[in-house]
Amino acid sequence: MTGTATNSATDITSLSDWKYKHNESDTTSTPVIAEEGVATSIELEKVIPHIATYIEQKKYAESKKNEAIIIKLNMLETKRLQSPLDVIIEKDSEGFIARAVDFSLFGCGDDRIEAIDALKFEIESLYFDLIEDDNFTEEWLSIKNFLKELIIDS
Fold this sequence. Notes:
By secondary structure, the protein is α+β, with helices and mostly antiparallel strands. 42% of the residues lie in helices and 22% in strands. The chain starts with 14 loop residues before the first helix and ends with a strand.
């Protein structure tokens, strides 16, 4: 091969035009416009499926960012849990909400981590408040008993 590609898109309009103009049947040495160096069409054919896969994975990951996810919470701010607590994290208009599945408590934040940390704080605060007294409704007493069994108090 004697010629190389230039940076002008008008010099080579397509690979087939280049082959026709240069009577080139072997695509292994077909030059392609690049910022640094010259790549062959075979090299590009090998890379294109990987690029397409990468783009699809990025699109999938971006679409998943707005979907609700479920995590297992094993620790609070200062306490450990006897068994993992299921937490749903979902995006809302202003950030993220993390909410406990087993009782009505949630935390908010600009990102998932902040929402989880806020929920941890809320669970611990509720636990300390409920431990102080027994003068609650049946619903709050059942949550108190649930938290007493869940939280390792050491």
